């Protein structure tokens, strides 16, 4: 399944530098606002040591990781909700993504100008939050007008919808993001249909200097305190370090660089894994001589739904799934050994896929 995350932030916080490092797509990165005007799109393979381990055991002709689509969205300024700067374009691009990766600048550098004159990640976050909320208020108000007309026409269901719409509007007017609103089951459909920008799950990325990438600094501490009640994840990444890593040719060179920096993994790994958690995604595998492959499904997916990620015919004609647990496969060394040990499960349509399952589907179309 496709996962699309949008990188957002004010101009000159390091969005495009980070995007370039993540995707090696070489988007324009410049020391002036609106260097990014059109959204850049890149595909990142999801790092997974389990896929590498399976490939070593199976020795397939091909190894295929799953991927994440990253969109570098134009920088936003105050007034974007009213079309200032590239506001309309920026907000339209955000509407297309599944999750928001909000980059805030947490480093001082006199050579890199800040659009508001000084470095303050809390203020920067509040600027973007307010613009997104204002746009959502506009969306809800327009929808509420239509609902009220339907209610006046005597539609009983519309009365309940008006109440729900009014509750959403009041929540936004209190400058609270839509994602923090608690809803009853019969209110969720209307909420989802509005496609509100602040309803999207969010991950905060503090872009720091090299010296702060492990423990942070005063700016990151202040920012983490400001978002503590949101329940959102905050990660520290140095876009500069990631850019250096992206320039290295071999895995050995990258590992040596990370070791010298005192890091256990690249920031891209942390970012992708955080996006997975954000969207409640898990990975299952298929393993054979032709191909060992990783597949992405939503947490809680059934076996037929997982089969449908490969091909819709697999889901339509689903008969059963043969399932091997990753640890069993690795400890026993092969599918044949797993079967011989009686460790392979045969599951039906109600089976809930678990992260790391190795699956083979039987189907009939």
Topology:
Blueprint: E1 4-8, H1 15-23, E2 40-45, H2 49-58, E3 62-64, E4 67-72, H3 87-95, E5 99-105, H4 121-152, H5 156-173, H6 188-193, E6 202-207, H7 218-226, E7 233-237, H8 239-247, H9 251-261, H10 267-278, E8 281-287, E9 291-298, H11 303-310, H12 312-316, E10 318-324, H13 326-332, H14 335-340, E11 345-347, E12 358-363
Parallel strand pairs: 1-4, 1-5, 3-9, 5-6, 6-7
Antiparallel strand pairs: 2-4, 8-9, 10-11, 10-12
Would you write up a description of this structure?
This protein is α/β, with parallel strands linked by helices. The protein is 41% helix and 19% strand. The chain contains 14 helices and twelve strands. The strands form three sheets. It has a six-stranded mixed sheet, with helices on both faces. It has a three-stranded mixed sheet with strand order 3-9-8, sandwiched between helices. Strands 11-10-12 form a three-stranded antiparallel sheet. Strand 8 and strand 9 form a beta hairpin. Helix 1 runs parallel beside helix 8. The longest helix has 32 residues.
């Amino acid at each position: 399944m496709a996962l699309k995350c949008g990188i957002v932030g004010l101009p000159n916080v390091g969005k495009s530098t980070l995007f370039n490092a993540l995707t090696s797509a070489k988007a324009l990165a410049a020391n002036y606002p609106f260097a990014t005007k059109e959204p850049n799109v890149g595909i990142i393979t999801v790092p997974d040591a389990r896929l590498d381990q399976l490939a070593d055991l199976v020795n397939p002709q091909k190894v295929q990781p799953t991927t994440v689509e990253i969109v570098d969205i134009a920088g936003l300024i105050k007034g974007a909700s009213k079309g200032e700067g590239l506001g309309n374009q920026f907000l339209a691009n955000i509407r297309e993504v599944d999750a928001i990766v909000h980059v805030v600048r947490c480093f001082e550098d006199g050579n890199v100008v800040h659009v508001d004159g000084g470095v303050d990640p809390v203020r920067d976050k509040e600027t973007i939050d307010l613009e997104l909320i204002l746009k959502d208020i506009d969306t809800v108000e327009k929808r509420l007008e239509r609902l009220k007309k339907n209610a006046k026409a005597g539609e009983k269901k519309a009365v309940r919808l008006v109440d729900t719409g009014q509750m959403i509007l009041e929540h936004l007017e209190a400058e609270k993001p839509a994602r923090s609103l608690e809803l009853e089951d019969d209110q969720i459909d209307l909420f989802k249909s509005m496609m509100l920008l602040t309803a999207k799950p969010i991950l905060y990325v503090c872009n720091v200097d090299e010296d702060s990438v492990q423990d942070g600094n005063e700016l990151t501490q202040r920012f983490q305190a400001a978002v503590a009640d949101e329940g959102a994840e905050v990660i520290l990444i140095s876009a500069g370090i990631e850019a250096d890593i992206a320039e290295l040719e071999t895995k050995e060179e990258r590992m040596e660089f990370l070791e010298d920096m005192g890091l256990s993994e690249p920031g891209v790994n942390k970012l992708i894994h955080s996006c997975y958690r954000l969207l409640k995604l898990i990975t299952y595998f298929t393993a054979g001589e032709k191909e060992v492959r990783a597949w992405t499904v939503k947490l809680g997916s059934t076996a037929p739904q997982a089969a449908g990620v490969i091909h819709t015919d697999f889901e339509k004609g689903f008969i059963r799934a043969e399932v091997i647990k990753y640890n069993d496969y690795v400890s026993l060394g092969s599918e044949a050994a797993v079967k011989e040990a009686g460790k392979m499960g045969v599951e039906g349509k109600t089976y809930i896929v678990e992260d790391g399952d190795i699956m083979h589907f039987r189907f009939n179309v």
